Amino acid sequence: MITVKNTESYLKNKIGEETDDIKKVWETFKAFCKETVVGEEDKEILFQCGVYDFTGEELFHFDFVRQFTVYEEDEYSHMEQLHCEFLFKPTDELSKLEAEEWSMDYDDIDDFLNHIENLQEFKIPLNLKPIKLEIYQEEM
Questions:
Q1: Closest to 134 measured CA to CA, from 12, 5, 28
Q2: Helix 22-33 crosses helix 7-15 at what angle (to 10 degrees)?
Q3: Which DSSP string do the residues of 72-125 spell out, in sequence order?
Q4: Alpha helices of 6-91 — where are they, by DSSP H?
Q5: Are strands 59-72 and 44-52 parallel, antiparallel or unpaired?
Q6: 3-state SS class at 5
Q7: Nearest to 122 by CA among 76, 79, 62
Q8: Among residues 83, 82, 97, which one has the least CA distance to residue 128?
Q9: Cα torsion 7, 48, 70, 74: sign
Q10: Which of 34, 38, 119, 132 is such that its CA lies 20 to 30 A from the CA of 11?
């Protein structure tokens, strides 16, 4: 049984340690997007990419996100996001890429995932070597 509290460890176990194989991680993340998480009302999936300096250093972020709305006793409590994020040095090619796509804008999850796979912002980084992969969950 997957719960919001254990999604980070669940996804890390599925992906494995120290990988930089973006295609393998994407396939694992896609399968994870279709799995049921206890307490989740709607599947909220985000693909985002762009150059940001969240860490104090400008890097290209290539980020697959699953967002959870958390309720306690039927009352809204908070949001959490589980990130599966690749970081790259911002080359000229990558610096031109920026996207933010939410699954809620599509009729179903498969339409959304197919759309993402056809974006240039998705295709270009697929064959590049990232600096690292970070999998983490944060409260919003």
A1: 12
A2: 140
A3: ETTEEEEEEEEEEEEEE---HHHHT--EEEEGGGSSSHHHHHHHHHT-HHHHHH
A4: 7-15, 22-33
A5: antiparallel
A6: helix
A7: 62
A8: 97
A9: negative
A10: 119
Residue 16 Rama label (left phi>0; alpha psi -120 to 50; beta): left
> What is the full per-residue pLDDT of the chain (140 aa) written as tens digits?
899 999 999 999 999 877 889 999 999 999 999 999 987 878 899 999 999 988 788 999 999 999 999 888 888 888 999 999 999 999 999 999 999 999 999 999 999 999 999 999 999 999 899 999 999 999 98
Residue 48 tokens read as 């985002």
What backbone torsions phi and psi does residue 99 show, to the nearest 5 degrees? -155, 150
Contact 20, 6 (CB under 8 A): no
Query: What is d(CA 78, CA 72) in angstroms, rounded to the nearest whole number?
Result: 9
